[in-house]
Amino acid sequence: MADARDMTADPPARPPLAGGAPTAAATRPAAALRRQRPRGAWLVPTLYILFLLLPIYWLVNMSFKSNQEILGAFSLWPQQPTLRNYMVIFTDPAWYSGYINSIIYVVLNTVISVSVALPAAYAFSRYRFLGDKHLFFWLLTNRMAPPAVFALPFFQLYSAFGLIDTHIAVAIAHCLFNVPLAVWILEGFMSGVPKEIDETAYIDGYSFPRFFLRIFMPLIASGIGVAAFFCFMFSWVELLIARTLTTTDAKPIAATMTRTVSASGLDWGVLAAAGVLTIIPGALVIWFVRNYIAKGFALGRV
Amino acid sequence: MEKSWNNRAWFMVLPVLVLVAFSAVVPLMTVVNYSVQDTFGNNEFFWAGTEWFEELLASDRFWEAMGRNLVFSLVILAIEVPLGIFIALNMPRKGIGVSVCLVLMALPLLVPWNVVGTIWQVFGRVDIGLLGHTLEAIGIDYNYVSDPIDAWITVVLMDVWHWTSLVVLLCYAGLVSIPDAYYQAARIDGASRWAVFRYIQLPKMNRVLLIAVLLRFMDSFMIYTEPFVVTGGGPGNSTTFLSIDLVKMAVGQFDLGPAAAMSLVYFLIILLLSWVFYTVMTNRGVER
């Protein structure tokens, strides 16, 4: 999926089979567009990126300072760089278990979301059936539902099942918005695979499960990767529901961060270090999905 | 693509249906239940009819939160959309620069929402933040903790920081799909740069822009975590948006009835917006 394929080709127009070098047709508009850009155009994205990175830099900067330095002297970079803040996080179970909890429910959620979304997306992209459009719309409304609306009923529902403060509770609750997302993204990718491939496979004597696993899934491998990435991400960034459903054993790192207030005031350094560590997972994998980011955020509709 | 009629496809959709129904329909029914009942505790409920809805629609608190939320959504749309288009137009189109730009610009989108709040909470503080400290140094009185206007500026700036990239990415996706022939034709006609933008690029970005506007509007309409971390809805109630108010009511004060009624009204608004979004998305093929 790392090839420099044109990120904007419409799902029907994109031949997922031809994953290779960009074609001449894909590079030519770029050349023409470049002529459309005024001299010094690079300045605009550069300034914008600077604006984006400045607050993040400030957080990183703080994470390497001691609290006295943060509160005492104002400096643009750490004068006495220290790893103490990170040491606190990696040695205190209350902190690092937050990361472990987050990762457990996020991975659980990603696996559940993608595996149930795969057959559903195939059904939506290949068949018409009773109520299909209503169902598709209903799924969308769940992606758009304000989590605040669900916070209280979720708490009661999961209490009734005795699931409060378990990883699986958060993982299932996050399915509310991640399953629709995965279905929409995968449907977009699947619609780009010509139906003739299915038919040829059936004529060749493939059963449906074998066709799906052996032929179809490799064809939409990048789609699965993108769907998984976005499920991972949206589950990772969500706090409201995760915090409502957990108390101690499954408490996410995001919720731990809201309670850094101690007797001696806020521990800014540790807070900053915890923040930096939550940005890292996203920053690490973003390179692989860079050409599909717009598609993922727009529910596969670009 | 020609789709064949096959009702057995339902079996493939079933797992999704069960899972999402468990997470969505059951809680929603609970909300409906509460919205028409009253309680004096002890788990004893009795019928209250539309009382909560009438109370809600007559309360200033609800309309103020709604008004703040609408103003917020419109302000960030007015900033993020033109800014996003402008940046997308100036993005590099070729080489390693494209990937670097895409990755760096997408970075804020991947930061956990409460950390976005934390970043700006720290960044804006006068004593330890770069922004607050710099503003103070050049003599601007800025304190988002006590001044409502400064709080608003901080929250809006934070949202611009967080989400403008989404508009940029979508617009960029629209721009690179414009075939070269359009530009050649424009060159032969001697079209100005503005004319190229107005008559070629903007119409071609139409659809992605619509997606961007709808997504930004809906997401900003249910914003919770970021302003909650930075301002906690304050100072006073100046940054209490619908979600913050709702959570305060439901979890903080445990006013189940009013909170449930508010949830439903809130959800209906989102439903209407989703319908617009869905209609736009699924009519795509027809328009072309």
Explain what the structure shows:
The complex is a heterodimer of chains A (302) and B (288). Chain A has a single domain, classed as Orthogonal Bundle (MetI-like fold), CATH 1.10.3720. Chain A contains 15 helices and three strands. With 302 residues, chain A is mostly helical. Chain B has 288 residues and is an all-alpha fold. Chain B has one domain (60-241, 267-287): MetI-like fold (Orthogonal Bundle), CATH 1.10.3720. Chain B has a two-stranded antiparallel sheet with strand order 2-3. The radius of gyration of chain B is 23 Å and the shape is globular. At the A-B interface, helix 1, helix 2, helix 5, strand 1 and helix 6 of A face strand 1, helix 1, helix 3, helix 4 and helix 5 of B. Strand 1 of chain A pairs parallel with strand 1 (4-5) of chain B, so a sheet runs across the interface. Chain A: It is a multi-pass membrane protein. Chain A: Residues 16-25 have a biased composition (Low complexity).
Task: Give a quick summary of the entry.
Chain A has 302 residues and is mainly α. Chain A has 15 helices and 3 strands.
Approximate helicity band of chain A: 55-70%
CATH architecture of chain B: Orthogonal Bundle
Query: What is the CATH third-level topology name of chain B?
Result: MetI-like fold
Q: What characteristic shape of chain B results from the CA principal axes? A: globular
Beta-strand residue percentage of chain B: under 5%
Q: Give me the count of strands of chain A.
A: 3
Membrane topology (chain A): Multi-pass membrane protein
Protein name (chain A): Glycerol transport system permease protein
GO cellular component, one term (chain A): plasma membrane
Domain ABC transmembrane type-1 (chain A): 99-289
Describe the SSE topology.
The complex is a heterodimer of chains A (302) and B (288).
Chain A: H1 24-36, H2 43-63, H3 67-72, H4 84-91, H5 93-126, E1 127-128, H6 132-144, H7 147-160, H8 167-191, H9 195-203, H10 208-219, H11 221-237, H12 240-245, H13 253-257, E2 261-262, E3 265-266, H14 268-285, H15 293-297
Antiparallel strand pairs in A: 2-3
Helix pairs in contact in A: 2-14, 4-5, 4-14, 5-8, 5-11, 6-8, 8-11, 9-10
Chain B: E1 4-5, H1 10-35, E2 37-39, E3 45-47, H2 51-58, H3 60-89, H4 96-106, H5 113-124, H6 130-137, H7 148-175, H8 180-188, H9 193-221, H10 225-230, H11 242-252, H12 256-282, H13 284-287
Antiparallel strand pairs in B: 2-3
Helix pairs in contact in B: 1-12, 2-12, 3-7, 3-9, 5-7, 7-9, 9-12, 11-12
